[in-house]
Amino acid sequence: MTAHAITTRASAWLARASTLLLLAWASVGAQAAPVRMVAIGASNTHGWYVGNAGAYPAQLQALLRAKQIDAHVTNAGVPFDTTAMMLRRLDQEVPDDTKIVILQPGANDRRFFGTREQRAANISEMERRLRARGIKVVVYDDEIPLRYYTLDFIHLTREGHAMIAAALLHRVMPLIEGRRKDAAPTASATSTKSARN
Predict the structure, then answer these.
(1) Residues 138, 148: Cα–Cα separation, whole Å
(2) Dihedrals φ, ψ of 140, to 5°?
(3) What is the pLDDT of residues 72-113, one digit of tens each?
């Protein structure tokens, strides 16, 4: 084998090794970036009766971290809030580096004589504003079985919060995995960059 052939093979091997290292580094970087989430809602999001630590945002964060995902779920629940109040404080509660917002609109609109139409319009406007900023939105407005409520039939038990956290986990995981795929360059793109350098 000539010296030229040896040099050519060595160069090709180094190019492949560099590509693999770049891919591995990019994948680690994409996974290491924290996933910042904000939960917007009223007293149940806040954790009435169970506290912030027992509320679904904290339980969701724990579930994500158990899957080795560096998630930070900020609890932005304010007791007695209606969707109109949530809309007013939305921009100040959601920093620019937020990736996902969980919106749990609750039932205070009905309790405080709001209309169903206005509630729906407020939710749509919150979704629109967040998506315009490139933020993914998960609206949790599901019917919750009575067994998950405390004696006031307004606020959730710890088990109710656990149920919501588990349901949300299945909804946010595809968004997180999609974000990782978007962040990691493809092998062909990395190879093209290496060839150009």
Answers:
(1) 21
(2) -105, 100
(3) 999 999 999 999 999 999 999 999 999 999 999 999 999 999
In this structure, the answer to whether residues 82 and 97 fall within a common structural domain is: yes
Nearest C-alpha neighbor of 37 from the set 175, 155, 141: 175
The pLDDT confidence band at residue 178, using thresholds 50, 70 and 90, is confident
- Is 94 part of any domain? yes
Within this chain, do residues 118 and 171 fall inside the same structural domain, yes or no?
Answer: yes
Classify burial at 6, counting beta carbons within 10 Å of its beta carbon; exposed 0-12, middle 13-18, buried 19 or more. Answer: exposed
- 124 and 172 together in one domain: yes
Helix residue ranges, H only, 94-186: 108-111, 116-132, 158-183
Name the DSSP letter for residue 69: -
Separation between Cα atoms, residue 197 and residue 195, nearest integer Å:
6
Domain with 60, as residue range(s), is 34-185
